[in-house]
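During the reporting period the student researcher (J.K.) took over the structure-prediction task from the postdoctoral fellow and processed the backlog of single-chain submissions. One of the processed entries is reproduced below for the supervisory committee.
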Amino acid sequence: MAETTVVEKGMTIFLDVFRRADRKDDGKISWEEFVAFFADGIMGKEELRTLFDDIDTHKTNFIDPKELCDYFANHLGPFKEILSLIEDLNVKVSNMLVSTAQSYPGSSRSNQFTVRFLMGLVFNQVCAIQHPLDAATDALEAQAKEEGVNIIAVQPEDVREKNEELIVPGRIVRRAKRQTSKQTTYEGNQNLTSTQVALEDQVDRLAKLLNRMEKKVNFDGLVDEEVDITDDKIVLLYQQDLTVKDGQMDSFKTQLRKYIEVTNSAPGALTMSVRSFKDTPKFSIYEVWTSDDLRARHLQAQGPKEFTDCVAGMTEKRTESVVHIPSTWWRRD
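J.K. obtained the following structure tokens:
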């Protein structure tokens, strides 16, 4: 976004909502972007247009971050306290994940068991909060559909922009896609309520950390092994060290976020992690791949290639190294 919007406690999640809706990342939401993000398969075109105009208090035919936050601030009711608690939960869970990731590898096996148990306990409790929210959301949607049987639904041409690919609106397809996968994705999150997004993000992060704990690289109890060189299977750990130029941090993070999303779903990509160094513009990006060919092919695709080209102009120093790891170390049976 072009400038920083300061909001009160409990409202920062709407800045993330704005970022998700702002597909062009130009600091404003157009009518087409608004429909593509907020259309839920229930609200009609005229209803959404009225809502868009209500939010657009400056009457610019665009919605800026402050307008979006101001609108929801006036309609939060009992949700305000919940969103404020979720902000605190996000911080506390993030701190817990970082602390656990640092201390877990060097802990005794009994302590590791305790950590896994407690992590699973937290995971289950967060899921328990999500279930009634899902049920309530489904009930509200069913009621809204019954009341709006004569509403004209949003059509694809309502969100078509000149010289751009068609954006198909509506929550139904995205929701179905989310239900067929346990992975929390950008597309699957676009039209969830703010509370569900935050909860599912934390559930996903807890699940991933649990998975890494149980299936981490097996450096414990290594033994000498004699390997047939013709049958030596490996995975590759790539490390990129970057130093971001002054004034390029926001643009770099935007491009990095897009790269992470596309890389995590790429064939051959086992995992990806990013480390940022406090009070410095330095980053380290780690990727584990099953083969160099698959990564090379991935880097030639449009999204990753765009990241490489853009980052070249945003960074001062950039180095890359690779380590070959026996595939038997990667997953513990």
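The committee noted the following: The radius of gyration is 23 Å.
J.K. will present the remaining backlog at the next meeting.
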